[in-house]
Write a structure and sequence with these properties.
By secondary structure, this protein is of the alpha/beta class. The chain is built from 11 helices and 12 strands. 33% of the residues lie in helices and 19% in strands. Helix 4 (83-101) crosses helix 5 (121-130). Bound molecules: iron/sulfur cluster. Iron/sulfur cluster binds at residues 36, 38, 81-83, 86-87, 192, 194-195.
């Protein structure tokens, strides 16, 4: 067994500390970032790996994550965050990496009692047991309060040089960071959208109207303004250039579901993604909505030139849009 630890590296302070504590003992460390569709960015993990001087593997969750989100075995937190299920999922992925790399242990930055939903003692034990990592999942920051892992029992890792943190206090962790020479601390990132209560209506709407949700649908959830047209159709409008580009990227993806990207040509405005089978009437309604959300909405506009993209096929079309100010109700804003 190599003295190699796979550290679940989110990019936050705690996972960086877990990695550095092991490095201090001469244990080789490799970082693993498990990417969900709801992470703001991979960048914090990339920056953390660079700061620690370790390699980083990024693995994206697979389609089975969708079912976990739809029906978490251990429920949601304050929003739609299935944190205990999600930690367990990540630990299972880490176990696969541990086997591939021949590592002796998986480590995480979890601190006993820090989060009520997923870091109670029974949660930490459950994650280790159900992931198949029992005895091989080390929490260096709270290890002295937990049962020893095989790596500690075998002397590969010195338990005496691990820690006994517990609870929500940040100050002792910040002090440890200073002692261990971690001076470039991660900036606060927006983190996981599932923990945000304002994001929850999008998730509920998706699962309510769609029985066949894919990761592509989940990736779309983070982008733009979402409107429900009817049970089969939803439209998403980009809010800025970055989101417009993200919509185009999603439209071109090989795993895209039945969706149509609409890009303005004759006016300056947002791009839109129509999810569901497109019809002429629906496309007109989408373009009307796009015009409503232009900076200088032209209420007299009766016709618009747009580019329609379905899969890899793109074509410019001119659409009658009627009178935008006619008072026709707009699709319902989900969030
Ligand atoms: S905050 Fe998000 S990524 Fe983190 S464990 Fe919870 S659901 Fe998973």
């Amino acid at each position: 067994m190599k003295r190699l630890a796979i550290v679940l590296l989110s990019g936050g302070l705690d996972s960086m500390l877990a990695a550095r504590v092991l490095q201090e003992q001469g244990v080789a460390v490799e970082g693993l970032k498990v990417q969900t569709p709801f992470d703001a960015s991979q960048q914090p993990a990339i920056d953390a790996a660079r700061e620690l001087g370790v390699s980083l593997t990024i693995r994206r969750v697979e389609e089975d994550y969708v079912e976990l989100l739809r029906r978490p075995q251990f429920g949601y937190g304050k929003a739609v965050n299935p944190c205990l299920d999600c930690h367990l999922y990540m630990a299972k992925m880490a176990r696969r990496v541990l086997d591939e790399r021949g590592a002796c242990v998986v480590a995480s930055g979890e601190v006993l009692g820090q989060r009520p939903m997923s870091q109670k003692r029974q949660d930490l034990n459950l994650i280790a047991r159900r992931s198949g990592l029992e005895g091989r999942l080390l929490r260096p920051l709270s290890a002295k309060r937990l049962d020893p892992t095989i790596a500690e029992l075998e002397g590969w890792i010195n338990r005496e040089r691990l820690y006994d943190f517990a609870g929500r206090g940040r100050r002792p962790l910040m002090e440890l960071a200073g002692k261990l020479g971690l001076h470039r601390l991660p900036e606060r990132s927006p983190g996981c959208a599932l923990t945000t209560t304002t994001f929850a209506p999008r998730v509920h709407d998706l699962f309510h109207f769609n029985t066949n949700v894919t990761l592509w649908d989940c990736d779309l959830l983070r982008i733009g303004r979402h409107f429900r047209i009817d049970p089969l159709h939803k439209v998403v409008l980009g809010r800025d250039a970055e989101e417009n580009a993200a919509l185009s990227e999603l439209a071109a993806r090989a795993d895209a579901v039945e969706a149509t990207l609409v890009e303005p040509r004759s006016f300056i405005g947002p791009r839109a993604m129509l999810c569901g089978p497109a019809t002429g009437d629906l496309l007109q309604a989408v373009v009307r909505l796009m015009i409503e959300y232009t900076r200088q909405a032209d209420s007299e506009c009766r016709e618009a030139l747009v580019c329609i993209q379905q899969g890899q096929t793109r074509q410019d079309v001119r659409l009658e849009v009627g009178n935008v100010s006619s008072g026709d109700p707009l699709p319902r804003l989900i969030a």
